[in-house]
Amino acid sequence: MQQIAEAAGVSRGTVDRALHHRGRIDPAVEEKIFRIAEKLGYTPVRKLKKEAGPKGAETLTERRKIRIGVITYLCNAGFMQEINRGIARAEEELREWGIEILLRESPSIDEQQQLAFLDELLKEELDGLAIMPIDTGAIRQKLYDIEKTTQLPIVMFNSDLQGVPRLCYVGMDNTRSGRTAAGLMNMLTGGSGKILIITGSFSNQLNNARVDGFTKELKESFPGLKIAAVQCSFDSEEEVCKIVNTAMLNIAGINGIFVVSSGQSGLRKAFRSLALDRRPYVIIYDQTPKNETLMRDDVVDFLIDQNGYEQGYRPLYILANAVNGKKVPVSYSENTEISIKTKYNL
Q1: Yes or no: is domain 2-59 CATH 1.10.260.40?
Q2: Are the CB atoms for 282 and 313 separated by under 8 Å?
Q3: CA-to-CA distance for 105 and 299, rounded, in angstroms?
Q4: Fewest beta carbons less than 10 Å away: which of 107, 108, 151, 317?
Q5: Domain locations in the chain?
Q6: How far apart are CA 152 and CA 104, in angstroms?
């Protein structure tokens, strides 16, 4: 299907919808996809099983299942909706190939819980592991030991741990996205003022990379913009509201707010309670239904989206290819797009 997508100049999702009659496709594009599929000899797995009969079906489906473990955190957060959708879609598709996905989700950033998940999954004779790693010494050492002692292919997604052996990282270049946000904030503010930064957790590598990119770009390119404070919200709407209220009442000159984590709806509550004549300029992350509403209601100015669907979908296919013996580059990154949204292009 990837070969068909490349030959047709469309996404693999478009190929999937055309070949399996899911959703509306431009008739000309659909015809082109079918023509290329026929030329390349594409045959759906379901058809192969049916034509093979009982003996052939056994060779396709009754070998020991390939098991891929998946570990995530903040599973109920808004940004996880698209990631979870990507995981679910890949799981559905890979099931036809006898690949089983073992998903472990945590509602919080909990080092002990993630270590427990790793121990639990390792007992399942895993063939591959996809993980959103927490950046702590214990997690780093655990993943390092797993890779060195078992040679288990590991793909990190959404957040990366530099220096820890892994097959691939799938996700946004978060440092670059932070620099992007700094450029946007400079345009909004005219290059002067104070910026309040709100992060989710100081142990979250993804959050730290965004803050790091933002602050470095201000220092290097926009010296007229100063950091008023960097506060931790633990991804809570109530904490975001409290942080904004406290900062706006106690620090003069704040004209920009940069939120790198979840809990963005707390901005609306804070602005209502402050009753400001003019709110600060605001940049947030992740195109979720709640955040789209904040954009449309002019609570925020820019939203940076990281294409969560691909972050959930791609790691499972990379691992499926690796365990099936297909050549996969080692220690590389597949960076998802840094997509800038306004209320006019949601």
Answers
A1: yes
A2: no
A3: 31
A4: 151
A5: 2-59, 65-172+308-337, 174-305
A6: 17
What is the number of alpha carbons within 13 Å of residue 248 lying toward its C-beta? 22
> What's the pTM value of the predicted model, to 2 decimals?
0.76
Q: For 174-305, CATH number?
A: 3.40.50.2300
Note whether 132 and 157 are within 8 A (CB): yes
Q: What is the pLDDT of residue 64?
A: 66
Q: Domain 65-172+308-337 belongs to what architecture?
A: 3-Layer(aba) Sandwich (3.40)
Dmax of the chain from CA atoms? 76
pLDDT at 331 over 50: yes
Show Cβ contacts of residue 18 under 8 Å, excluding neighbours closer than 6 positions.
25, 29, 30, 33, 34
* Topology agreement, domain 2-59 and domain 65-172+308-337: no
pLDDT digits (tens, 9 = 90+) for 165-193: 999 999 999 999 999 999 999 999 999 99
Sequence-distant (≥ 6) Cβ neighbours of residue 28 within 8 angstroms = none
Query: 19-46, pLDDT tens digit by residue?
Result: 876 666 788 888 898 889 888 888 665 5
133 is written with which tokens?
A: 């790693």
* pLDDT, position 345: 94
How far is Cα 165 from Cα 138, in angstroms, rounded to an integer?
15
DSSP structure class, residue 103? E
Please count the CA atoms within 13 angstroms of the CA of 111 that sit on its side-chain side: 12
Q: Three-state SS across 286-297? A: CCCHHHHHHHHC
Residue 326 pLDDT > 90: no
Q: What is the pLDDT of residues 104-145, one digit of tens each?
A: 999 988 999 999 999 999 999 899 999 999 999 999 999 999
In the beta sheet, which residues pair with residue 67? 100
Q: Which residue has the tokens 């913009």?
A: 225
Measure Cα distances from 321 to 111, 167, 219 in Å.
29, 12, 43
Identify the weakest region by mean pLDDT among 17-26, 226-235, 245-254: 17-26
Torsion sign, CA atoms 104, 108, 111, 113: negative
